[in-house]
Amino acid sequence: MSEDSTSPVAGPVVRPRRLRTTAALRRMVAETSLEARQLVLPLFVREGIDEPHPISSMPGVVQHSRSSLLAAVTEAAELGLGGVMLFGVPEAKDATGSGAIDPAGILNLAITDVVAEVGDALTVMSDLCLDEFTDHGHCGVLTADGRVDNDRTLEVYAEMARAQANAGVDMVGPSGMMDGQVAVIRQALDAAEHTDVSILAYSAKYASAFFGPFREAVGSSLQGDRRTYQQDPGNAVEGVREVLLDIEEGADLVMVKPALAYLDVIRRVRDAVDVPVVAYNVSGEYAMVEAAAAHGWIDREAAILETLLSIRRAGADVVLTYWAAEAARLLRA
Ligand code: PBG
């Protein structure tokens, strides 16, 4: 500080705090937006139930019945969400996941129900993967010695894509991490004249502990792990490679999953591509915040909005999150 009282007060000339003085000013200079249209709500629909069934490791999330699903998508449309991502939970599972390609399978029926209910008000997306439908819980069919058979799985994915497109889906989300899956699905869709059905490729998907609660959500008892097809959590360069390959194969949007432990991968991908980048704020990330909030250890609503804003800041244009509807309500308030 200056000793001379006639001279100006010594102190920092540059004061970043100046731009934080009022809420209006902070709003004006905010770098990152969070809007309902950027959020996609994942929804589970379970065959053979009349009432929604709670998922204990994901408090507030349920397995929907076919009718409760319609109420959920109507609300999602009213809130102005970007879309919904549908997951099916079949009553019976088998080795090849045959419920996935059956036009009367739960996911395909739900797609038709949802499209009839919301029309063009939402982008209706469906998970294109076998783990919800197989009795062993893997994302593909197995060889005689129990390995996941990449190329035979691709044949099933092609059929699954056709079934979902015939059911009326807008966008399919291949999440099985089989090599060549996007090319095979694009070809199958085009051959069936579904050229307008787009592909959201789960491109950089890691073998993650943060998928834990999802296993309960889809009633999956996975035997072993997914490390021969999902990526090693330490690999970021490879994540970009997977994304670039998927774009070459015809992906319209690419995804990084999970989100929070992979914010650097989201940023690398955003800087490397010219298609929309999507991030999946997964079940375990949801469960962590909910558990801490239930203990009173964290401000739940603030943590939700900060989480989603941070995933956007990292570079995701769109975020899949189980908080999509609630976040949209909070953003309105
Ligand atoms: C595979 C799939 C998974 C998730 C979405 N799609 C599970 C997995 O790959 O193990 C996880 C989503 C979440 O944890 O919220 N069909």
UniProtKB/TrEMBL annotation:
Catalytic activity: 2 5-aminolevulinate = porphobilinogen + 2 H2O + H(+)
Cross-referenced SMART domains: ALAD
Enzyme Commission number, as recorded: 4.2.1.24
Residues binding 5-aminolevulinate 1: 215, 226
Gene Ontology BP terms: protoporphyrinogen IX biosynthetic process
Keyword Aminoacyl-tRNA synthetase appears in the UniProt entry: no
Binding site for 5-aminolevulinate 2: 283, 322
Keywords: Heme biosynthesis, Lyase, Magnesium, Metal-binding, Porphyrin biosynthesis
Cellular component aspect of the GO annotation: cytosol
Active-site residues, Swiss-Prot/TrEMBL: 205, 257
Alphabetized InterPro entries for the sequence: ALAD (IPR001731), ALAD_AS (IPR030656), Aldolase_TIM (IPR013785)
Pathway where it operates: Porphyrin-containing compound metabolism; protoporphyrin-IX biosynthesis; coproporphyrinogen-III from 5-aminolevulinate: step 1/4
Cited Pfam families: ALAD
UniProt keyword Magnesium present: yes
Residues given in the record as Mg(2+) binding sites: 242
Listed GO MF terms: porphobilinogen synthase activity; zinc ion binding
Alphabetized CDD domains for the sequence: ALAD_PBGS (cd00384)
Subunit structure: Homooctamer.
Protein's job: Catalyzes an early step in the biosynthesis of tetrapyrroles. Binds two molecules of 5-aminolevulinate per subunit, each at a distinct site, and catalyzes their condensation to form porphobilinogen.
Protein family (similarity comment): Belongs to the ALAD family.
Entry protein name: Delta-aminolevulinic acid dehydratase
Lineage of source species: Bacteria, Bacillati, Actinomycetota, Actinomycetes, Propionibacteriales
